[in-house]
Amino acid sequence: MVSSSGDGTTIILAESDISSGPFSRYDVAQRAFTRSGGDGWFNYECAASRDASLFAVPTYGSTFIYDGNFNRVTNIGVYAGQQPTGAAFHPAADAVFFPFAGTTFVRAYNTTTWDMLAQYDFQYTFSSPGNHAFGNGRIRVSPDGQIIFVTVSGGVRYLRHNLNLPQTHRLQVAGSPGQYGDPAPLSYGTYWLPHGTNLTISVPALVETNGSAVIYTGWTGTGSAPGSGTDTAASFTLTANTTLTWNWAPFVVRANVTPGPGGGQIMLQWPSLAGKSYDIFFATNLLAGFAPVAMDLPATPPNNIYQGAIGPAGAGFYKVKMK
C-alpha cells in the first residue's frame, strides 16, 4: 500500500500479508527510501500527513501513529474491536480520517490533540480485515481536503465533510542553479504558512561575492505563484502548496572577434536584466585605468551585445558596468 504526503515530498509504503508489518518512507526528491520500520502486525493500509511529520498504519492491533523518525506517538482504536480499517490525512490541515470497523462511521481526529472532531455515517458497517488488506474501508481525501472517499461493498461512497479547519500551505523558496543573494523577507527554504497569507518576496538584481558576480534573470513559480516574471519582486496570495524559484546567471562577458568594415570588430555579449542600463569601458593597460567607450546602453534581455572596432592598439581590456 502507498500514500503520499499532502505536499508531495514523501511517500509511505506498507507491506501486507506479513506479521512483521514492514513499512518504509520514500523521499521523492532523493528518489530513495530513507527509513524503514515495522509494527509487528499485519498491515491494512498506510497514510502520511500533509508535511510527512506523521504516519498512520492501521492493523488488527489498532492504528499506530508514528512521527517522522518512526517513533510511536499514539494509537487509535482497540485490538480486535472498533479500530480503523484505513487512514487518510487532510492535505493542508491537522486532521485525519478513519473508517472504524464494527461501525458505520468515518471519524475525524485532530492530529495535535488527538481529540475526535466529528463522525460521519456512511450507512455501511465496516468489518475488520483481520490479517488481510485491500478490503472494505479504504479511504482517500480529495486534493482540496474537502471530500472523503471510502470503499464499501460494491463500490465507493463519498461525502463533503464541511469541517472548518485552519489550513496551512507549503511554500518552498528555491534558487536555480544555486541559492544566490538573500530573498527577503523570506530567505531560501521551506515554510508552512496559513491559508490566504499575502506575500511579496524580492531579491537583489546583482550579487557579487569572492570576485565573481551573478545576475538575476527572473522567477518561475507553481501553485499560488504560477508562471514567470522578470521583476525582482514576486507578489501572490498563498492558497495552495507553492514553489517560487529565483533564476540566476553568471555575469560573464564573452568576447569574439569578427570581420567588419575597416578591420576586425570586437563583439561583447553578457546577460541582461530588464530595466537596467550598461556602460562599456576600455583600457590598453590595466595600470593606466579604463576610459568609457559606450554609455547608457539599454537592456535587451536575455542578452546584451556590443560591437565596435578593435582600433590601432590591437589588444586591450573591456569592462561592463550594470546600473
Q: Can you walk me through this structure?
A:
- The mean pLDDT is 93.
- This protein folds into three domains: 2-160, Methylamine Dehydrogenase, Chain H (7 Propeller); 168-250; 254-322.
- It has 323 residues and is mainly beta.
- It has strands at 2-4, 10-14, 22-27, 32-38, 47-48, 54-59, 62-67, 72-76, 88-89, 95-99, 105-110, 116-121, 139-141, 147-152, 155-160, 168-176, 189-194, 197-202, 206-209, 212-222, 227-229, 233-238, 242-250, 254-260, 263-271, 277-283, 291-298, 303-309, 317-322.
- A hairpin with a 2-residue loop joins strand 14 (147-152) and strand 15 (155-160).
- The strands form eight sheets. Strands 16, 17, 19, 20, 21 and 23 form a six-stranded mixed β-sheet that branches. It has a four-stranded antiparallel β-sheet with strand order 1-2-3-4, with no helix packed on it.
The CATH topology of the largest domain is given as: Methylamine Dehydrogenase, Chain H
Mean pLDDT: 93
What separation lies between the terminal Cα atoms?
A: 57 Å
The parts where pLDDT drops under 50 for at least 5 residues are: none
Tell me the β content. over 45%
Major sheet characteristics: 6 strands, mixed
Overall shape: it is: elongated
CATH class of the largest domain: Mainly Beta
The secondary structure category is mainly beta
Helix content: under 10%
The CATH superfamily of the largest domain appears as: YVTN repeat-like/Quinoprotein amine dehydrogenase
Number of helical segments with 4 or more residues: 0
Total beta strands: 29
The value of Rg in angstroms is 29 Å
- Give the H and E element order: EEEEEEEEEEEEEEEEEEEEEEEEEEEEE
